[in-house]
Specification:
alpha/beta; binds hypoxanthine; 268 residues
């Protein structure tokens, strides 16, 4: 099936593009894909892809050029909480690998957990805690993609992180850095759960990214993870949470987010 999907995408791009860098755009952050000139394919047209049903996620693959570099962009991602098997969530990452992608930039909207971060911050992910209750590598191992027991010591590539920090400093962006904890969602966390995450060392919490990062690491890709802190997590300020605020805040940080990602792609 994987080869079938890869061939389908190659046919659509007529062999014109061989991107080495891919970008997964999280909630409210999809607009950057509109600035890519190239080919657009809706997920539902792609064999074995699933369509995202969540507001704020367009659901298409964009393959083309940004900042003079070839890129493959997922404008909107699929979340585990939408009810698909976890293998479906990470399928696009395996397709990227087969298409020759070497660098994967994963972005998300996240809740701020620790004092290190505040609303409107961009946070470089330096490690994660998988609290989703599932691992996307469960099942028969695909030996052509990776090994059965992949090491997870350095999932988020140190060199890419350093480069991104330097770019952020040049742009005058106060880029934070920290640990991202993932839950399955779709309910937000309770204040007690957030207290637990803070105790465990998490700086931000969200419902995505970790499955894709596990599989990209397994496939030997270099990963860069960036969270947009769209709200403080439950119990931090006592304010109730809602999805439209997450999307709205995503819109507000869009300018810095776009500037940063563009420069990272240019220099990757
Ligand atoms: N919790 C989980 N996921 C999120 C949050 C949050 O507070 N904000 C944005 N995505």
């Amino acid at each position: 099936m994987l080869n079938h999907t890869v061939e389908f995408i190659k046919e659509h791009t007529k062999g014109k593009y061989n991107p080495k860098t891919a970008l997964i755009l999280g909630s409210g952050l999809g607009d950057l894909a509109n600035e890519v000139s190239g080919v657009r394919i809706r997920y539902h047209e792609i064999p074995a892809f699933v369509q995202s049903s969540i507001e704020g996620h367009a659901g298409q693959l964009v393959i083309g050029k940004l900042e003079g570099k070839q890129v493959l962009v997922m404008q909107g991602r699929i979340h585990y909480y939408e009810g698909h098997e976890i293998q479906k969530i990470v399928y696009p990452v395996k397709v990227m690998k087969k298409l020759g992608v070497e660098n994967l930039i994963i972005t998300n909207a996240a809740g701020g957990v620790s004092e290190k971060v505040t609303i409107g911050d961009l946070m470089l992910i330096n490690d994660h805690i998988n609290f989703m209750g599932v691992n996307p590598l469960i099942g028969a191992n695909a030996n052509d993609l990776g090994e059965r027991f992949p090491d997870m010591s350095e999932v988020y590539n140190p060199a890419l992180r350093e480069k991104t920090k330097k770019i952020a400093a040049k742009l005058g962006i106060n880029l934070k850095e920290g640990i991202y904890a993932a839950t399955s969602g779709p309910s937000y966390e309770t204040p007690a759960e957030i207290k637990m995450f803070r105790t465990l060392g998490a700086d931000a919490v969200g419902m995505s990214t970790v499955p894709e990062a596990i599989v990209a690491n397994y496939c030997g890709m270099k990963i860069l993870g960036i969270s947009c802190i769209t709200n403080m997590a439950a119990g931090v300020t006592g304010k109730r949470l809602n999805h439209s605020e997450v999307i709205e805040e995503g819109q507000k940080v869009k300018e810095n987010f776009t500037k940063l990602i563009r420069q990272v792609i240019r220099h990757i």
